[in-house]
Amino acid sequence: MELEDIMREPWTPSAETIEQVRSMCEPVSYNKGALLVEQGKRSYHFYIIKEGLCRSFYTGEKYEDTNLFAKDGDIIGSISAYFSNDVARFSIETLTPSDILILSFDKLRKALIDNVELSAWIRDLLFGQLNALELRYSYRSGRGDALFRYLKLLEKWPHKRINDIPLKYIAQYLQITPQMLCKIRRKHLGME
Hints:
Elements: H1 3-6, H2 15-24, E1 25-30, E2 35-37, E3 45-51, E4 53-59, E5 64-71, E6 75-77, H3 79-84, E7 91-94, E8 98-104, H4 105-114, H5 116-140, H6 146-156, H7 167-174, H8 178-188
Helix pairs in contact: 4-5, 7-8
């Protein structure tokens, strides 16, 4: 996906603003399994996924929780690192080989001072992310059974991309066991 296409959400800024963002980005290709952000460590960038698939996850003492997936066109990074210069609260890894534009927090902060349009675009993008987070947690905290949560995930991840995500991470995301996920998938596909 090209930057122009990615920046069409939530609305399209001017060509000048898109070009300014492009000039601030560094294109990097990552292999599958690369850690972009590491929980408990400082992070200094947002990641604009041109092509690829990533997941965000939290690691506790005895468990791991996948809290989101990001695909072509998504922008990810540690909000706590950006807003409060704190360490990242979660890790982000690539699930497939990925082409990513790296956007430095410092460059973005400087650009936001002078570019009102970019500031408005970032604000709307972040509010959209907060809305998605609220929806996700409302689904996870009792709104619907595991099948309902799985079907909601399929709405967001059409066609083959969902097949690029290992089942154990989908199960973590849905807060069910991998065995339960297999049962749900068979039921959904009419195999039971």
